[in-house]
Amino acid sequence: MSDKFGVLGFDHVEFWCGDALAVANTWKQALGMRELSRSDLSTGNNKFCSIVIGSNDVKMAFTSPYPTNIQDQHDDHTSDVDGVLGFDSAAAHDFIIKHGTAVRAIGLRVEDVHAAYEIATTKGNATGITKPTLLQDHTNQDQNLLVCELGLYGDVVLRLISDTKPTTTTTTTTESTTTTSSSFQGQYLPNFKDNDDDGSGGGLSDFGIASIDHVVGNVPDIKQIANKIIQFTGFHEFAEFTSEDVGTVESGLNSLVLANNLENVLLPINEPVTENMKRQSQIETYLIHNQGPGVQHIALRTNDIFKTIDKMRSRLSSTGCGFELMRRPSDGYYAELPSRLGDKLTKEQYEEIQRLGLLADADDQGILIQIFTTPVTYRPTLFLEIIQRIGCEIDGPSGEKEQKGGCGGFGKGNFRELFKSIEDYEKDFVK
């Protein structure tokens, strides 16, 4: 066990963007999600508009700053509201100009924010962005959370969240599992107004997206960033891939996956390989258009990828609102897939994988089925992955079955096919 402070799992991802309402509505439609909560002028917040969407355990917030000239119109709640994120409107405007729609914060649930911040900054040399702060709802002082922020890479922060009540940790002989009781009953953070509508009457259907599987960053130098993160979190190396595993004949990358003890927080990091390559790596393309390091993609886990992708494709074709998926692999890929994976999948599953243009791979413990979107903004930067993991069941703290993190690996057998499809997508604007 290597974690320097207790990390329980992903809580949310926050994006900063130019129009939170428009972007959130697009993503909500594209992914079959619903609005969970919001903070904006209607809730007494004159610094930013933030719309939170989600399904099951996924929460994604989209935040846009209001013009600075309206922010002098303070009301009684302004100090409570802007204390939620320590929000700096000028910095948010600069972030959006620099990166476009991009991930600002990766939110993690931890056992104790105060202890985590102290350990990370004093012993781990982490860059403190926001000191531990008690977020207290101005309508109900019993509803509160502790939050702090640490620099991760580029302009992305690691946002740590904990309850103000004690946390209970249960350890089995093979796995360590942590649970916590929370006094906060809101959907996102204090001073956000929750949406009580479950979405059932709004014409939206749940596409089955269940949780955040992993969040991937692109950086110029893996070693420097990984060592920094390991130093202040204690995360361990979960997997590593080199250019020989990943690259095509034209370009390549190196990748390292970091994980917490529970292995339910997976943070892969990519760097470009430039030596002896014929063309610009997709990671270089990202770093140029994002103007520095940042989150490349978010993997969203589903328990039925066939249903999820069917619904995503149907939503896009019927309404024109949705995300394009990366081009399907070659016929040769599907012809050799059964010989590579054998009887780990059924004949019907192989047929569905081919019909939907999915990728599949396996390790010695489980199966991975995945597909990627094309970039979801106007820049060739941020995209999404939809993923299903099959197998790797372990006993949970109460005897129930749980799936081990990273089951089925990270699609090493698909890297070349995936990388080639991205290169094909970029061929019109990358030489």
From TrEMBL:
Keyword terms, alphabetized:
Iron, Metal-binding, Phenylalanine catabolism, Repeat, Tyrosine catabolism
Domain of life where this protein originates = Eukaryota
**Regions of compositional bias (Low complexity) in chain numbering:** 167-183
- Give me the comment on cofactor binding: Binds 1 Fe cation per subunit.
Record CDD domains: HPPD_C_like, HPPD_N_like
Looking at the record, which segments are called Disordered? Answer: 166-192
- Transmembrane regions listed in the UniProt entry: none
Q: Which Pfam families match?
A: Glyoxalase
VOC domain mapped to chain residues: 9-163, 211-374
What is the official name of this protein in its record?
A: 4-hydroxyphenylpyruvate dioxygenase
What is the source species?
A: Lotharella globosa
